[in-house]
Amino acid sequence: MPIHSKLPDVGTSIFAVMSGLARETGAINLSQGFPNFDCPKPLKDLVYKHMIAGDNQYAPMPGVPALRQSLAQKYRRLHGCDIDPDTEITITAGATQALFTAITALVDRGQEVIIFEPAYDSYVPSIRLCGATPIPYKMQPPEYKVDWERVESMITPKTKMIIINTPHNPSGQVLLEEDLLALQGIALRHDLIFMFDEVYEHLIFDGIPHFSALRYPELYRKSVVVYSFGKTYHNTGWKMGYTIAPEELTREIRKVHQFNVFSVNTPIQHALADYVNNEEWYSALPGFYQEKRDLFVDILRQTRFEPVDCKGTYFQLASYRTISEEDDLSFAKRITREYGVACIPVSAFYVDKSDFKVVRFCFAKTPDVLEAAGERLIKI
Ligand SMILES: Cc1ncc(COP(=O)(O)O)c(C=O)c1O
Fold it and tell me: Domain containing 118: what range?
């Protein structure tokens, strides 16, 4: 039977390809984004405690109420916003499911969604599966800046959504107050929905505050804000996340969520409910990751790579323009094989595979691993 593929040009993701090559060649894997250190022990103990206590059946569809209440409390403290945990927060199986569910619920066939490239890889297929068209705004190295007037000129009667990611994977750039105010202006002038991917909310450096959409009521009114516990608690493998959105948007998101996963891991939700207001944990994250960024940038400065200024996330971009003229995929594969360090070619984050001779390294690693990678990178 001939199979009609809904995603004919989608192959194996670059993350699987580069991690596979790293395994095969024994290279140090700085490609895929995950820490090589463990999540906090008290949080693991809480999961065990709740399992033993019998919190092992289906959670309520929108999420365990105690967790939603804890999150509302957290964002009141962080951003001064008043989020209703009953009607505005939905717990999801990671940010990826949150993004997919919200796009599926809110974007229709024939509509357009503006994305900023280089873009996290799940946006485009999620948009295409709705029969909609991604409209890329191409950001370029070394600054990866956005001109909001140009973005506004890209809005057509078909535009339904704009997806914004701050701090931004892979560029490491962050939006500032002036950017959020420009977006709020666009929100007031156009009938659109804004999706804010804020999974790296606590991985932000040099004292820069995280300007969340939750801080701007007129913008939030039209926004879905997506988070991931995995990035904040060093447990990407738990696949836990959530959406925060006004009631009328949340209602639509939950209609899809209930037939997508229905509800997510019960004991972990209870454990997180007890843990998310541990302010000490998330307040320490910017310093914790900034130290790693500084170490890795120092290392790169001793090589022929040119690091891009990184203000957030756990990713560091580097140009290899002075090393080679190869395309970035060939270069990434070759240095994995020949020098034993795996990275991600940034062309993978552009629909048209634009190649700016830049690769992405993940620095969510212990210093010994970053230093060992440095000893290899310096030989290139
Ligand atoms: C920008 C961005 N959004 C979403 C996600 C997905 O998060 P999760 O692992 O919670 O699905 C990631 C993970 O790498 C990401 O970098």
Answer: 42-279
